[in-house]
C-alpha cells in the first residue's frame, strides 16, 4: 500500500472512531477492507481507496470505519469485574439510594450485547437484595451492525460458552435451533442506541455506573483523556466506572482512581468528596499502588 | 498441581483435551469409559473430571450418578463435555450433580473459561 493511501485510511478511521492504526496494523487494514470492497462490488483495495478519495460517500466512510473496529466480547468478561459489580458496587448503589429515581447504568461500547446482558443478569440474580429499586441499562456502540445483533440477542454455541455459567444459560436463554437467545425479559431491560464516544454524550443523562471496557485501549492518549473528561461530567459523584483489564487511568486523567481490592473498578476523585476507600485519598499513594508494567 | 481425569471414548478428544489442560497446569489421567473412570476415582479422587456422555459400557451420566454415591465422590468438580447440546440433557446433567457443561466442539478458550468459572483456575 502506498504511504499516502495508508495515511488516508489511518486519518479517516481515527477521525471517525478514535481508533489508532499503526503501520503494524497494515495487515489488519487489508484483511478487513478487501472483503468490504468486494461486498460493495469493487475489484479491490485500490478501487476502494479511489472511491474514498474522490466521492467521500458517507455510507462508504462509515463502513470502512466500522470494518476496522474490533468487536470481540464475551459474557461476564474477565469474571472478576462482574463479581465486583454484584458484590461490591450494587450494595453500595442501593445503600441509602432514595426510592423513585432509577439507578442508571451505561455500557458505553457494548458491541454485540454480551456486556449489557451480563449486567442485566446480575441485576436479576441479585434482585432480592435490590429492595425494589428501579434500574435502567443503556447500551451504545459506534457500529450499527453490532447493535442489530445485540438487540436480537442471539448467540452461537461458541459465544455462549465463553463466560456464561451453565446454570445462568439454563435460566436466561432459550435454545433456537443451533443458537441461543437471551430471554425477552432480559432483553427488555436494555435500551440499545448508536453512539460515538468521540461525540458529546451528555444527552444520555447522568449515570451511577459506566462500563467503558476494552474500547479506550484502541484510542490515542488525547482521545482517552477527552473521553474520561466527558465521563466525569455525566457520572454521579459517587458513581463507579469499570475499565477493561488492560486499561488504566494512570498518566491520563486525575478524575478517577482505582478502588483498592476491586479489580477493574474506578471511582471519581474530587476535591469535595474523599475517594473510596477513604484511607487512600492522595494521588501519591494511589500512584504507589499502581500495578507494575 | 491440580489433577484432572479425562473420560472420553475417543482417543483424539482425550489427546486434544490433555494438551489444553496440561497447558493450564493440570496433571492428567485418562479413561476411555465410565466404568474404568469409576475404578480410577475409587483408587484416587481427582480434583476435576472432564466427562463425555456417550460411551460404550457405562455412559457419562451413569458414571456421574455412581460417582456422587461413592465415598469422597462429592468432591471432584465434574464438567461434562459432549455433543449432547439440548436443554433436557443439560438439565439432566445438572440434576445428577454436574458442575459445568461444555458442548462440543470445544476449544482452548472454552475449556479455560469453564474451568475458571468453577474456580479450578
Ligand atoms: C472490543 S469491543 C468491547 C466490547 C465490550 N465492552 C467488552 O468489554 O467485551 C469494542 C467496541 O467498541 C466499539 N467502538 C470503537 N470505537 C468506538 C467509538 N468511537 N464510539 C463508540 N464505540 C466504539 C466497537 O464498535 C466495538 O464494538
Question: What can you see in these coordinates?
Answer:
The complex is a heterodimer of chains A (293) and B (121). With 293 residues, chain A is α/β, with parallel strands linked by helices. Chain A has 2 domains: 3-68, Chemotaxis Receptor Methyltransferase Cher, domain 1 (Orthogonal Bundle), CATH 1.10.155; 80-287, Rossmann fold (3-Layer(aba) Sandwich), CATH 3.40.50. Helices cover 42% and strands 17% of the residues of chain A. In chain A, the strands form 2 sheets. Chain A has a 7-stranded mixed β-sheet with strand order 6-2-1-7-8-10-9, sandwiched between helices. A 3-stranded antiparallel β-sheet of chain A has the order 3-5-4. In chain A, β7 (207-212), α11 (221-234) and β8 (235-243) form a beta-alpha-beta unit. Chain B has 121 residues and is an alpha/beta fold. Chain B has a single domain (2-117), classed as Rossmann fold (3-Layer(aba) Sandwich). Helices cover 43% and strands 21% of the residues of chain B. Chain B contains 5 helices and 5 strands; from the N terminus they run βαβαβαβαβα. In chain B, strands 2-1-3-4-5 form a 5-stranded parallel β-sheet, sandwiched between helices. In chain B, α2 (34-43) packs parallel to α3. The longest helix of chain B has 13 residues, at 11-23. The model of chain B has no long low-confidence stretch (mean pLDDT 97). The complex binds S-adenosylmethionine (SAM). Residues 17-19, 69-73, 77, 109, 111, 115, 141-143, 146, 196-198, 213-215, 244 of chain A line the site of S-adenosylmethionine. S-adenosylmethionine is lined by residues 17-19, 69-73, 77, 109, 111, 115, 141-143, 146, 196-198, 213-215, 244 of chain A.
Helix-strand layout with pairing:
The complex is a heterodimer of chains A (293) and B (121).
Chain A: H1 3-17, H2 26-39, H3 45-54, H4 58-68, H5 80-94, E1 103-107, H6 114-125, E2 135-141, H7 144-152, E3 154-155, H8 157-161, H9 166-172, E4 173-176, E5 179-182, H10 184-187, E6 190-194, E7 207-212, H11 221-234, E8 235-243, E9 256-258, E10 265-268, H12 283-288
Parallel strand pairs in A: 1-2, 1-7, 2-6, 7-8
Antiparallel strand pairs in A: 3-5, 4-5, 8-10, 9-10
Chain B: E1 2-7, H1 11-23, E2 26-31, H2 34-43, E3 48-51, H3 60-69, E4 77-82, H4 87-95, E5 100-103, H5 108-117
Parallel strand pairs in B: 1-2, 1-3, 3-4, 4-5
Helix pairs in contact in B: 2-3
Bound molecules: S-adenosylmethionine.
Amino acid at each position: 500500500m502506498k504511504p499516502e493511501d495508508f495515511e488516508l485510511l489511518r486519518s479517516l478511521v481515527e477521525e471517525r472512531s478514535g481508533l489508532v492504526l499503526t503501520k503494524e496494523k497494515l495487515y489488519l487494514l487489508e484483511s478487513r477492507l478487501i472483503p468490504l470492497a468486494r461486498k460493495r462490488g469493487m475489484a479491490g483495495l485500490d478501487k476502494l481507496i479511489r472511491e474514498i478519495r474522490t466521492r467521500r460517500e458517507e455510507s462508504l466512510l462509515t463502513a470502512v470505519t466500522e470494518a476496522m473496529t474490533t468487536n470481540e466480547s464475551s459474557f461476564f468478561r474477565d469474571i472478576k469485574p462482574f463479581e465486583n459489580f454484584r458484590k461490591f458496587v450494587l450494595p453500595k448503589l442501593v445503600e441509602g439510594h432514595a426510592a423513585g429515581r432509577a439507578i442508571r447504568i451505561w455500557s458505553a461500547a457494548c458491541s454485540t450485547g454480551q456486556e449489557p446482558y451480563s449486567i442485566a443478569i446480575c441485576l436479576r440474580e441479585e434482585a432480592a437484595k435490590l429492595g425494589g429499586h428501579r434500574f435502567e441499562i443503556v447500551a451504545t456502540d459506534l457500529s450499527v451492525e453490532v447493535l442489530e445483533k445485540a438487540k436480537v440477542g442471539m448467540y452461537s454455541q461458541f459465544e455462549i460458552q465463553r463466560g456464561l455459567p451453565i446454570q445462568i444459560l439454563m435460566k436466561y436463554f432459550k435454545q433456537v435451533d443451533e443458537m441461543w437467545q437471551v430471554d425477552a425479559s432480559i432483553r427488555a431491560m436494555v435500551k440499545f442506541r448508536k453512539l460515538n464516544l468521540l461525540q458529546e454524550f451528555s444527552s444520555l443523562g447522568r449515570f451511577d455506573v459506566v462500563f467503558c471496557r476494552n474500547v479506550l485501549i484502541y484510542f490515542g492518549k488525547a482521545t482517552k483523556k477527552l473521553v474520561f473528561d466527558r465521563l466525569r461530567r455525566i457520572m454521579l459523584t459517587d458513581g463507579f466506572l469499570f475499565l477493561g483489564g488492560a486499561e488504566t487511568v494512570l498518566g491520563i486523567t486525575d478524575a478517577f482512581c482505582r478502588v483498592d481490592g476491586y479489580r477493574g473498578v474506578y471511582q471519581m476523585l474530587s476535591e469535595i468528596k474523599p475517594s473510596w476507600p477513604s484511607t487512600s485519598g492522595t494521588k501519591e499513594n494511589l500512584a504507589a499502588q499502581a500495578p507494575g508494567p | 498441581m491440580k489433577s484432572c481425569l479425562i473420560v472420553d471414548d475417543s482417543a483424539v478428544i482425550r489427546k486434544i483435551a490433555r494438551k489444553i489442560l496440561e497447558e493450564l497446569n493440570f496433571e492428567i489421567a485418562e479413561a476411555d469409559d465410565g466404568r474404568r473412570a469409576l475404578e480410577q476415582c475409587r483408587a484416587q479422587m481427582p480434583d476435576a473430571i472432564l466427562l463425555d456422555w456417550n460411551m460404550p459400557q457405562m455412559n457419562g451420566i451413569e458414571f456421574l450418578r455412581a460417582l456422587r454415591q461413592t465415598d469422597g465422590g462429592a468432591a471432584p468438580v465434574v464438567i461434562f463435555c459432549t455433543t449432547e447440546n439440548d436443554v433436557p440433557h443439560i438439565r439432566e446433567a445438572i440434576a445428577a450433580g454436574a458442575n459445568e457443561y461444555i458442548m462440543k466442539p470445544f476449544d482452548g478458550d472454552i475449556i479455560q473459561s469453564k474451568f475458571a468459572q468453577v474456580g479450578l483456575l
